[in-house]
Amino acid sequence: LHGAFAKNPRTEEQSLSLNLSLPTGTLHVTGTGSDVRSSCKQAFSELESKVKKHQSRLRKDYEWKRKRPRIRAEAAV
User: Which domain holds residue 53?
Assistant: First the structure.
């Protein structure tokens, strides 16, 4: 995990860019905010969601979704 802070002098906005190297790829995330803490929170929450999405793709969760049982029109009436 590599991270870099940057401050935009024009808008006084803080930004954090994170790079996470994994054996199966690299994830890049950027978080911006009015202060360092808010930019960190945004960047790490985005990184967490990307890691979860990456894990679900590796596990092929999309292939394991169970189909809903169909309700017949006759039984519903």
Answer: 2-62
